[in-house]
Amino acid sequence: MAVNAIGGAGGNSLSRRFNDDSLTFRFLVRGLLEASELCRRQFLDFVTSIPVCTSKKIELVPIVSSGGEFLPVSDLNMPRANTCARRLYMPKFSDYFEFKDIFWKVVVNESQFKGFHEWTS
Q1: What is the pLDDT at residue 14?
Q2: What is the mean pLDDT of residues 1-18?
């Protein structure tokens, strides 16, 4: 599986992109490398609706404000995916432990409840 950290520009919402130096991109790569096989399958299911590796790329897109600022993770800015386009929308995480805690909870709950993770409290 390849994760494409989109480059280039294209309007305010697309003007800030991840690259190899982005902390959130590095957190995702580290998280996938450390994850169990089950967690990686749940990740693929979350992003593509297919729990097996395919040759198509997954685009990693930052969640940004209308002004183009990279938004931090919050109750309103959680990781989300567009499975048809194979896009993973990610907010900015302050550190790896915050990423690991929040991201995997979203992925696991999405896998378990198929889109209704906000109902599980």
Answers
A1: 42
A2: 47
